[in-house]
Amino acid sequence: MRITGTGVWGPPADKQEALATLRRAMELHVTLIDTAESYGPHVSEELIAEALYPYPPGLVIATKGGYDRSGPHQWQENAHPDRLREGLDGSLRRLRLDRIDLYQLHRIDPKVPEDDQFGFLQQAQRQGKIRHIGLSEVSVDQIQRARRFFAVASVQNRYNLVDREWEDVVDYCERERIAFIPWYPLQAGDVSKGGLKQGVRRLLGRAGAATAQLAGIARRHNATPAQIALAWLLRRASVMLPIPGTSRRKHLEENVAASSVALTDEEFAALT
Asked: What is the full per-residue pLDDT of the chain (272 aa) written as tens digits?
């Protein structure tokens, strides 16, 4: 999402840095990249293919469909089967793939019967266009209804150290062994404009007494508060797959390094 222009619209301000960041991710052994047709739109998928095709073995590219874009910051759900078909075929073409390893419904469109949306995904999977299917911004009830049509491989809901709205979904996914992919894991905003630091300041200021200890824990681990926030997510559930977005190699390296931070039981409890 971050390798596009302002408002998730158009090309990035620094295309060469965006391409270098994608290639650096492979050097750091990142094996999952999350994108969407609507990022740009199309720009993110095109840059991923330009930077990484032919893809290294083991790389999973997850993409999403279900939004129309009319301009910067403009998002409109559209999960009519015809629109999903157009989006999926476009994603396959832009990513230069015969099959999407993980295709996610970006949003359940309230204007379209759920069964029509789930039925299209079921059909596309049977046709071999999709290997695994995921959902985004869904409740436990919605996940259960979708599972009547296909195995739900992943759920992508907003979740981070401050925003715990979807606690029940995290717990459900862990019980059912469904990957939980928290978007906005740092409440970071646009990292190219200092949003990462702003996100951490918001995190420190809004989460009460527990997360007031975040900076102290970061100092003990010689880490940044953002790295501790990511480490907390990884500790929160065994099915957790954070997707902190960035368009710069420096931020990418900092984010990946968070996976080596091991919080103690006491530190985890203090932040929880």
From this structure: 999 999 999 999 999 999 999 999 999 999 999 999 999 999 999 999 999 999 999 999 999 999 999 999 999 999 999 999 999 999 999 999 999 999 999 999 999 999 999 999 999 999 999 999 999 999 999 999 999 999 999 999 999 988 899 999 999 999 999 999 999 998 743 323 344 455 555 555 544 545 568 889 999 999 999 999 999 999 999 999 999 999 999 999 999 999 999 999 999 999 88
**Residue 184 covered by a domain:** no
Q: Are residues 72 and 202 in the same domain?
A: no
Q: What contacts 66, CB < 8 A, 6 or more positions away?
A: 77, 78, 79, 83, 84, 87, 105, 106, 107, 108, 109, 117
Residue 84 lies in a domain: yes
146 and 254 fall within a common domain: no
Whole-prediction pTM value?
A: 0.91
Smallest Cα–Cα separation from 66: which of 39, 99, 43?
39
Among this protein's residues, is 55 annotated catalytic?
no
Tokens of residue 136, six digits: 């985004």
Distance, C-alpha 109 to centroid of its chain:
19
**Claim to verify: residue 29 and residue 80 sit in the same structural domain:** yes
What residue numbers bound the domain in which 105 lies? 1-156
Q: Is residue 165 part of a domain?
A: no
- Gap between the Cα atoms of 122 and 124, Å rounded: 6
Peptide bond into 41 cis (omega under 30): yes
Tokens of 193: 């404009």
